[in-house]
Specification:
Layout lengths: L6 E6 L7 E7 L6 E8 L2 E6 L17 E4 L2 E5 L6 E2 L6 E3 L9 E2 L1 E4 L2 E5 L6
Antiparallel strand pairs: 1-11, 2-3, 3-4, 4-9, 5-6, 6-7, 7-8, 10-11
Protein backbone atom coordinates (compact mmCIF):
# COMPACT_ATOMS: atom_id res chain seq x y z
CA UNK A 1 0.00 0.00 0.00
CA UNK A 2 1.16 3.48 -0.68
CA UNK A 3 0.02 6.36 1.52
CA UNK A 4 0.81 8.76 -1.32
CA UNK A 5 -2.07 7.45 -3.43
CA UNK A 6 -5.10 9.72 -3.43
CA UNK A 7 -8.34 8.75 -1.70
CA UNK A 8 -11.38 7.95 -3.81
CA UNK A 9 -15.00 7.26 -2.94
CA UNK A 10 -15.50 3.59 -3.80
CA UNK A 11 -19.18 3.45 -2.84
CA UNK A 12 -21.69 4.42 -0.16
CA UNK A 13 -21.63 2.13 2.88
CA UNK A 14 -25.42 1.78 2.66
CA UNK A 15 -25.00 0.28 -0.84
CA UNK A 16 -22.68 -2.45 0.47
CA UNK A 17 -24.50 -5.39 2.06
CA UNK A 18 -22.95 -7.32 4.96
CA UNK A 19 -21.56 -9.64 3.75
CA UNK A 20 -21.15 -8.10 0.33
CA UNK A 21 -18.80 -6.72 -2.30
CA UNK A 22 -18.72 -3.78 -4.66
CA UNK A 23 -16.42 -3.18 -7.61
CA UNK A 24 -15.08 0.33 -8.19
CA UNK A 25 -13.04 2.04 -10.89
CA UNK A 26 -10.51 4.88 -10.67
CA UNK A 27 -9.32 6.80 -13.69
CA UNK A 28 -10.41 7.17 -17.27
CA UNK A 29 -9.86 5.43 -20.57
CA UNK A 30 -9.57 1.78 -21.52
CA UNK A 31 -7.54 0.66 -18.50
CA UNK A 32 -8.79 2.33 -15.32
CA UNK A 33 -7.67 0.97 -11.96
CA UNK A 34 -10.16 -1.67 -10.80
CA UNK A 35 -10.76 -2.38 -7.14
CA UNK A 36 -13.17 -4.24 -4.89
CA UNK A 37 -14.47 -3.36 -1.45
CA UNK A 38 -15.65 -6.13 0.86
CA UNK A 39 -17.93 -5.77 3.87
CA UNK A 40 -17.96 -8.57 6.40
CA UNK A 41 -19.06 -8.62 10.04
CA UNK A 42 -19.23 -4.82 10.09
CA UNK A 43 -15.68 -4.36 8.78
CA UNK A 44 -14.69 -3.01 5.36
CA UNK A 45 -11.65 -4.17 3.35
CA UNK A 46 -10.39 -3.11 -0.08
CA UNK A 47 -8.21 -4.83 -2.67
CA UNK A 48 -7.01 -4.31 -6.21
CA UNK A 49 -9.34 -6.31 -8.44
CA UNK A 50 -6.49 -8.30 -9.95
CA UNK A 51 -5.74 -11.96 -9.28
CA UNK A 52 -2.07 -12.58 -8.42
CA UNK A 53 -2.11 -15.68 -10.66
CA UNK A 54 -2.37 -14.04 -14.08
CA UNK A 55 -3.55 -10.50 -13.43
CA UNK A 56 -7.17 -11.09 -14.48
CA UNK A 57 -9.99 -9.24 -12.71
CA UNK A 58 -11.56 -11.53 -10.11
CA UNK A 59 -15.11 -11.07 -11.38
CA UNK A 60 -16.83 -11.66 -14.69
CA UNK A 61 -20.18 -10.12 -13.66
CA UNK A 62 -20.65 -6.82 -11.84
CA UNK A 63 -20.04 -7.11 -8.07
CA UNK A 64 -19.86 -10.94 -8.30
CA UNK A 65 -16.95 -11.91 -6.04
CA UNK A 66 -18.23 -13.98 -3.11
CA UNK A 67 -18.92 -17.72 -3.20
CA UNK A 68 -19.80 -20.13 -0.40
CA UNK A 69 -17.47 -23.07 0.17
CA UNK A 70 -17.33 -25.41 3.17
CA UNK A 71 -19.87 -23.28 5.03
CA UNK A 72 -18.04 -19.96 4.63
CA UNK A 73 -17.83 -17.20 2.06
CA UNK A 74 -14.63 -16.43 0.17
CA UNK A 75 -13.64 -14.22 -2.73
CA UNK A 76 -13.23 -16.17 -5.97
CA UNK A 77 -11.33 -15.51 -9.16
CA UNK A 78 -13.84 -16.47 -11.84
CA UNK A 79 -11.06 -17.16 -14.39
CA UNK A 80 -9.18 -19.95 -12.64
CA UNK A 81 -11.04 -20.62 -9.38
CA UNK A 82 -8.55 -19.21 -6.86
CA UNK A 83 -10.16 -18.59 -3.45
CA UNK A 84 -9.22 -15.71 -1.13
CA UNK A 85 -9.97 -14.95 2.53
CA UNK A 86 -12.09 -11.75 2.54
CA UNK A 87 -10.43 -10.31 5.66
CA UNK A 88 -6.82 -10.76 4.52
CA UNK A 89 -6.81 -11.32 0.75
CA UNK A 90 -4.75 -14.51 1.22
CA UNK A 91 -5.26 -17.17 -1.45
CA UNK A 92 -6.16 -20.45 0.27
CA UNK A 93 -6.88 -22.57 -2.82
CA UNK A 94 -6.08 -22.49 -6.50
CA UNK A 95 -3.14 -21.69 -8.74
CA UNK A 96 -1.81 -18.81 -6.60
CA UNK A 97 -2.19 -20.49 -3.20
CA UNK A 98 -0.17 -18.68 -0.53
CA UNK A 99 -0.10 -15.36 -2.42
CA UNK A 100 -2.35 -12.41 -1.59
CA UNK A 101 -4.48 -9.81 -3.26
CA UNK A 102 -3.01 -6.30 -3.14
CA UNK A 103 -4.60 -4.64 -0.10
CA UNK A 104 -5.68 -1.01 -0.29
CA UNK A 105 -6.08 1.34 2.67
CA UNK A 106 -9.73 2.12 3.26
CA UNK A 107 -11.96 3.82 5.79
CA UNK A 108 -15.57 4.88 6.22
CA UNK A 109 -16.40 8.54 6.70
CA UNK A 110 -19.74 10.30 6.41
CA UNK A 111 -21.34 7.16 5.02
CA UNK A 112 -18.80 6.85 2.18
CA UNK A 113 -16.21 4.09 1.75
CA UNK A 114 -12.94 5.87 0.93
CA UNK A 115 -10.10 3.90 -0.63
CA UNK A 116 -6.50 4.91 -1.39
CA UNK A 117 -5.80 3.75 -4.93
CA UNK A 118 -3.58 4.75 -7.84
CA UNK A 119 -4.96 6.67 -10.81
CA UNK A 120 -3.85 3.82 -13.09
CA UNK A 121 -2.39 0.31 -12.93
CA UNK A 122 1.24 0.24 -11.83
Amino acid sequence: MSPSWPEHVACRLEDLTDPGTREFFVGEGDWPFRGVVVRRDGNVYAYANRCPHQGHPLNLAEDDFLVTVAGGQVLRCASHGALFVPETGLCVAGPCSGRSLRALACRVEGGAVLVRAPERWE
